[in-house]
């Protein structure tokens, strides 16, 4: 019987039992696909990450799976939490890399930047520059969210498919009350995402409860088995890119996005748009650890 250590972290927070929960399993190398599926389903979090260090590639390697048997990539909480764990545990994951650091996610090298803020390790992933792919009729999106098209009227913005690492639709919502009121219809959301070729829906409003936040958000991705995600780095990056392209925020400036309030896991996602990238960053805390058996 094989035993593997696992850790539970809360990501995009500096407080335990807040942020986005993530299971991380430390492996000696690749597992069988069925083992990834079974373990992710057993934990039941939106995503479970598996990590190991490759001497040949001089890189920490990460793979992530949902309980619905989907593998996910990108630089979201599944990636940042895995890198944070390695640093919190003192694993030497950047040995031989020089001044520029990276971690391999689903066979893609993602550049990372490590900083310290108030004694906390802050991990930033460099996502690609945001691309505006298409807009969607507000009426179609509103119906799938239990809202009216007029509820999505905010600064003349339309539901827009944006992509850095993963394509999601940015859905403007008039105010926080309507944001909280949204009640997604999973089947309708799946149909829209399939028809338009993207993954999740990132609802956002500039009507924020705390002035130091840029926006308050909610994220739904039923096609990947995610009812509501407490923090979504792969959507926060595209949203920052969209708002910068709309001249609502400035490049090379740090902003904070609030997510997860309604699911009692408030999360703080740091974003910065640069000429060539979107930086998404956050801190993580270890909540528990143990061992699993294969």
Automatic annotation (TrEMBL):
Q: Give the annotated active site.
A: 47
Matching NCBIfam families:
PhzF_family (TIGR00654)
Source species, domain of life: Bacteria
Q: What is the lineage of its organism?
A: Bacteria, Pseudomonadati, Bacteroidota, Sphingobacteriia, Sphingobacteriales
The UniProt family comment states: Belongs to the PhzF family.
Q: Which GO terms describe its molecular function?
A: isomerase activity
- Protein name in the entry: Phenazine biosynthesis protein PhzF family
Kindly indicate where the leader peptide sits in this chain: none
Give the UniProt entry's GO cellular component terms: cytoplasm
